[in-house]
Write a structure and sequence with these properties.
By secondary structure, this protein is of the alpha+beta class. The protein has helices spanning about 15-30, 85-140, 145-170; strands at about 5-10, 30-35, 40-50, 55-65, 70-80. The chain is about 55% helix and about 25% strand.
């Protein structure tokens, strides 16, 4: 992390001009501000060009100071390289967007799965319940079914109940 501190003795008469003079001093040591902070104040972000054209994001803070007679004497300015922090912030923002998109896709897939399971449950149980119901009616018919018919009905009921249990476990 690079911190550049610039002290400029004021001879120009206004805080804004003094602040611009501080920016000029920063330029003299290799930073050319693209966005200039005018006036005194808290940390401001500015993008600066280095000697070789590389962009650097700096946190720039300028503060004016006065003598006892409240006459402006100069500007104290500091610029700190926050490029890595800004890149990390952007990477986190991009990652959060990716996560929100993935979450929305997962929620949509979960809803589709729930709809599918609900539909399949109904599509499988309805005909199976009809088969079991008819088999139970045939089992209790009057006159009673023959022994061979009873065995077949028993297999239908046993298989139907087994299939219904499987469906209940899966769905």
């Amino acid at each position: 992390m690079t911190t550049i501190v610039v002290f400029v003795e004021h001879k120009l008469g206004t805080p804004r001009r003094a602040s611009l003079e501080a920016v000029g001093a920063a330029h003299a040591i290799g930073l050319a501000p693209i966005a200039v902070v005018t006036g005194a104040g808290a940390d401001q972000a500015a993008t600066a060009l280095g000697k070789h054209g590389e962009q650097t994001v700096v946190s720039y803070n300028a503060s004016t100071f006065y003598d006892r007679d409240r006459k402006l004497k100069g500007v104290f300015a500091a610029a700190r390289d926050i490029t890595a922090s800004k890149l990390l912030d952007q990477a986190l923002l991009d990652r959060n967007i990716d996560l929100q998109i993935a979450k929305a896709a997962a929620e949509k897939a979960n809803l589709s799965k729930s709809d599918f399971l609900s539909s399949m449950s109904h599509e499988l149980r309805s005909p199976l319940n009809a088969i079991l119901g008819f088999a139970q009616l045939m089992e209790s018919e009057s006159p009673p079914p023959t022994t061979a018919q009873q065995e077949s009905i028993g297999r239908i009921l046993q298989s139907g109940w087994h299939l219904l249990n499987l469906i209940n476990e899966i769905l």
